[in-house]
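Structural prep section.
Before we set up the soaks we want a predicted structure of the protein with adenosine monophosphate in place, mainly to decide which crystallisation condition to try first. Input record follows.
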Amino acid sequence: MKILVPVKRVIDYNVKPRVKADGTGVDLANVKMSMNPFDEIAVEEAIRLKEKGVATEVVVVSIGPAKAQETLRTALAMGADRAILVQTEVEVEPLAVAKILKAVADEEAPGLVILGKQAIDDDSNQTGQMLAALMGRPQGTFASKVEVAGDTVNVTREVDGGLETVSLKMPAVVTTDLRLNEPRYASLPNIMKAKTKPLANKTPDDYGIDTTPRLKTLKVSEPPVRSAGIKVADVDALVAKLKEVGVA
Ligand code: AMP
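Run finished without errors. Recording the tokens verbatim:
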């Protein structure tokens, strides 16, 4: 069985985003970019399934600029077998990403597509669900455990009330939550080896997908600055202060 893992190149989670002065978006000039953290978890899960003998090949795919090659090489260094870059210099919205992934899945025929639950740049949390709908296949979102048994995948999901386990007939779409696993670091020898693993270059046109944006960003602004707190001497002063501001 083949596993397809879509990985997105996003602003690194340690970087504090700066909003562009004209309010049109986030300033990405000279900013460290990395693989979306939920996608690292997806790559790790796919590799573990291969190590267990459940999967035979892990294919990673990224839709983005030429630099997304670095993200794909990271996934290859972690242990993925092959990569596909669908290159475009424009911002691609979740629906268009899902349509491209559907076209890739039609070609590759994976038993599982494992995505991140959300990309930390746009926080959309849409692509996996849209992909499952376009493929007409079952979905298990926010996975904290994935177990394959024959042609079925059991996905334990993190839901508001606790945990829910769904049983899906494969091919199926799974999206990862934070507690699914701890992704490995790529070792230096594996980083070297990844340089020679196959990476195919494609464009959205190759799949006949129109990536023209359908959404219009009106304005991007910084969150309001939090005002500084104050220190009180003791509990009596705290209670008095709470009364004064009307919360006690
Ligand atoms: P989103 O719906 O944008 O929050 O993204 C959810 C997941 O879809 C991500 O964690 C990735 O696995 C996948 N994804 C989104 N955008 C891309 C992209 N440009 N290239 C590859 N995978 C993507």
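Observations: Residues 37-51 form the longest helix (15 residues).
Flagged for discussion at group meeting.
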